């Protein structure tokens, strides 16, 4: 009869539930698309270039993110159906492993984007020496170092995720990397603008101002998509660590599944803005599907 | 009273199913959160976060657009000579009239790289009044990467490329200008069609 024992208010922020069909569709689409990118790059010898190696690395990390979400969903369904207990040791270890896979995906995405930006930077500012600076072997070595570091830190973060000392560097790394990538691209952008100016200053030029907008739009899309897809989750981690009992924070954390779906949407959008912009890769796709028929 | 208990039963069951759905949150031990006496709207963090993110992205877009329109004129003087040389070479390269389809491939990059090496060899051989036999060899596009690069080569590159800077050779149409999206998206920004480059280099240097 004591209603006050039920401290759950009717005005609670209940978990916003994303239907499982939506989850699985988005995750499957992300995994398929990135797998196609990988297959296309592996099959076409012309695409064995450092730039495509970094795009593949981005595709792998996107696939890991979608895979994590799929596995987690399957896990939850198994729990609901009663095949797995909720507090078992094995389940806790499995959950830790899945958490580390997710953090690996996030770190892999950030470092892949950084590698892509640095590769383009070297392409533009050291163009004549590019093929000596960025050989395929060096690109693979860089990737090996990046992924080893990401794997190590993801395991460390997953094991010690309840300490503030891991959450804070993790959340600081995210905006720092974004800022660095933004600086690289802005510098490239400025050079491209001065190029366009030089060409425009030639007597027979007819360069329009409109072409400059495309660069701004492209860059905004790159960084905007990454921010909008990953920042909600990073904020969730921060709030979960520092104010789990605050009602405002709890309301933010109730949309966790929407944030997870956003991350999977990032896995779908990334190939479109990186891989599919290359005509060579698009033609490889067409060949693959044409031959499959 | 029974109605209230029904409601509270339903919310507790919903909470149970929520905790089933999000069982891993048990580690964080989310205790019951009371929503009494909230001053602002309960989703204020959500709304504030998304509005802030949207404002930031739009701000970034406007900053980038402003960079294209006004930008820094002093940047042209402050660049080192190496960059200026490279930009001259880019201008010369991009002066080529381009077809609507641009071929980005390893062959192109290597052949354009080999174009410069071709220049370097050409400069050396012109002194000896030797015709370059390496034109057809460029199709294999592998050996010229091993031409040793040193900083002293840049002056030779410059001399070589001044031969390219013929006024009627430079034809700037809109599709031949260096679009920023090409820089940001594609491979090494030497957008040339391979055969036409070879033809033009033969034409100019013969």
TrEMBL record, chain A:
Transmembrane segments: 22-42, 49-68, 102-128, 140-162, 168-192, 213-235, 255-276
Family matches, as SUPFAM superfamilies: Family A G protein-coupled receptor-like (SSF81321)
GO molecular function, one term: corticotropin receptor activity
Transmembrane helix as UniProt keyword: yes
Statement: the UniProt record of this protein carries the keyword Cell membrane: yes
Compartment(s) where it occurs, according to its Swiss-Prot or TrEMBL record: Cell membrane
Gene3D superfamilies documented for this protein: Rhodopsin 7-helix transmembrane proteins
Membrane topology value: Multi-pass membrane protein
CDD domains on file: 7tmA_MC2R_ACTH_R
InterPro entries in alphabetical order: ACTH_rcpt, GPCR_Rhodpsn, GPCR_Rhodpsn_7TM, Melcrt_ACTH_rcpt
Alphabetized UniProt keyword annotations: Cell membrane, Disulfide bond, G-protein coupled receptor, Glycoprotein, Lipoprotein, Membrane, Palmitate, Receptor, Transducer, Transmembrane, Transmembrane helix, Ubl conjugation
Record domain G-protein coupled receptors family 1 profile: where: 33-274
Single GO cellular component term: plasma membrane
Subunit structure: Homodimer. Interacts with corticotropin (ACTH). Interacts with MRAP; this interaction targets MC2R to the plasma membrane. Interacts with MRAP2; competing with MRAP for binding to MC2R and impairing the binding of corticotropin (ACTH).
Biological role stated in the UniProt entry: Hormone receptor primarily expressed in adrenal cortex that plays a key role in regulating adrenocortical function. Upon corticotropin (ACTH) binding, facilitates the release of adrenal glucocorticoids, including cortisol and corticosterone. In addition, MC2R is required for fetal and neonatal adrenal gland development. Mechanistically, activates adenylate cyclase (cAMP), the MAPK cascade as well as the cAMP-dependent protein kinase A pathway leading to steroidogenic factor 1/NR5A1-mediated transcriptional activation.
Family from the record: Belongs to the G-protein coupled receptor 1 family.
Name the record gives this protein: Adrenocorticotropic hormone receptor
Gene source species: Oceanites oceanicus
UniProt lineage: Eukaryota, Metazoa, Chordata, Craniata, Vertebrata
TrEMBL record, chain B:
TM stretches of this protein: 43-67
Record GO cellular component, one term: plasma membrane
Provenance organism: Oceanites oceanicus
Alphabetized GO MF terms: corticotropin hormone receptor binding; signaling receptor regulator activity; type 1 melanocortin receptor binding; type 3 melanocortin receptor binding; type 4 melanocortin receptor binding; type 5 melanocortin receptor binding
Pfam families: MRAP (PF15183)
Main location: membrane
InterPro entries recorded: MRAP
Domain of life: Eukaryota
Localization annotation: Cell membrane; Endoplasmic reticulum membrane
Protein name: MRAP2 protein
């Amino acid at each position: 009869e004591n209603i006050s024992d039920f401290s759950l208010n009717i005005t609670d922020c209940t978990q916003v539930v994303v239907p499982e069909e939506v989850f699985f569709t988005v995750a499957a689409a992300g995994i398929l698309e990135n797998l196609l990118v990988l297959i296309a790059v592996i099959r076409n010898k012309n695409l064995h270039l450092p730039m495509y190696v970094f795009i593949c690395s981005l595709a792998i990390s996107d696939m890991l993110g979608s895979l994590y979400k799929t596995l987690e969903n399957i896990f939850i369904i198994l729990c609901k159906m009663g095949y797995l207990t909720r507090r078992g040791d094995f389940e806790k270890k499995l959950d830790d492993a899945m958490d580390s896979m997710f953090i690996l995906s996030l770190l892999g995405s950030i470092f892949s984007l950084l590698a892509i930006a640095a590769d383009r930077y070297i392409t533009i500012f050291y163009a004549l020496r590019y093929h000596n600076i960025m050989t395929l072997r060096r690109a693979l070595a860089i990737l090996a170092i990046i992924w080893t570091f990401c794997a190590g830190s993801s395991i460390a973060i997953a094991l010690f995720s309840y300490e503030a000392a891991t959450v804070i560097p993790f959340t600081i790394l995210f905006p720092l990397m974004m800022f660095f990538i933004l600086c690289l691209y802005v510098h490239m952008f400025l050079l491209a603008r001065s190029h366009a100016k030089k060409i425009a200053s030639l007597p027979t030029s007819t360069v329009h101002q409109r072409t400059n907008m495309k660069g701004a739009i492209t860059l905004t899309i790159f960084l905007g998509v990454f921010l909008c897809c990953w920042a909600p989750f990073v904020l969730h981690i921060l709030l979960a660590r520092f104010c789990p009992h605050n009602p405002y924070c709890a309301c933010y954390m109730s949309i966790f599944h929407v944030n997870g779906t956003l991350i999977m949407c990032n896995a779908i959008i990334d190939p479109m803005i990186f891989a599919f912009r290359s005509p060579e890769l698009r033609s490889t796709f067409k060949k693959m599907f044409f031959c499959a028929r | 009273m029974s109605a209230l208990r029904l409601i509270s039963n339903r919310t507790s069951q919903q909470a149970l199913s929520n905790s089933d759905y999000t069982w891993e949150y048990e580690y964080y031990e989310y205790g019951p959160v009371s929503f009494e006496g909230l001053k602002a709207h309960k989703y204020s963090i959500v709304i504030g976060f998304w509005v802030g993110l949207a404002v930031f992205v739009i701000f970034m877009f406007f900053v980038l657009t402003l960079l294209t329109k006004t930008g820094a004129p002093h940047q042209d003087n402050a660049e080192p000579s190496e960059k200026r040389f490279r930009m001259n070479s880019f201008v010369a390269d991009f002066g080529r009239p381009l077809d609507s389809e641009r071929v980005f491939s390893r062959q192109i990059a290597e052949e354009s790289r080999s174009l410069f090496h071709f220049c370097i060899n050409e400069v050396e051989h012109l002194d000896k009044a030797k015709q370059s036999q390496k034109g057809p060899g460029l199709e294999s596009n592998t050996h010229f990467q091993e031409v040793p690069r040193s900083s002293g080569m840049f002056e030779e590159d410059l001399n070589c490329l001044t031969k390219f800077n013929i006024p009627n050779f430079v034809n700037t149409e809109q599709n031949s200008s260096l679009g920023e999206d090409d820089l940001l998206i594609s491979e090494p920004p030497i957008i040339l069609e391979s055969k036409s480059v070879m033809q033009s280099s033969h034409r100019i240097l013969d």
